[in-house]
Design a protein that fits this description.
This protein is mainly α. The protein has one domain. The protein has three helices and no strands.
């Protein structure tokens, strides 16, 4: 296995569409990761916006 393949596998594990807040799998996790830099789903993002604590 080359170094590039090893790094690619590690990156694939990081991008697994699982929300860090609620631990559910959702398609919006990748979209929010690109937009905001946080791995959270749409529902958690809205709740954090309304209740920022």
């Amino acid at each position: 296995m080359t170094e590039y393949e090893d790094i690619n596998q590690k990156n694939q594990k990081e991008i697994d569409n699982i929300c860090e807040e609620c631990k559910e799998k959702d398609e919006s996790v990748l979209q929010n990761l690109i937009l905001t830099g946080f791995k959270i789903c749409k529902s958690c993002r809205i709740s954090k916006t309304i209740f920022p604590i």
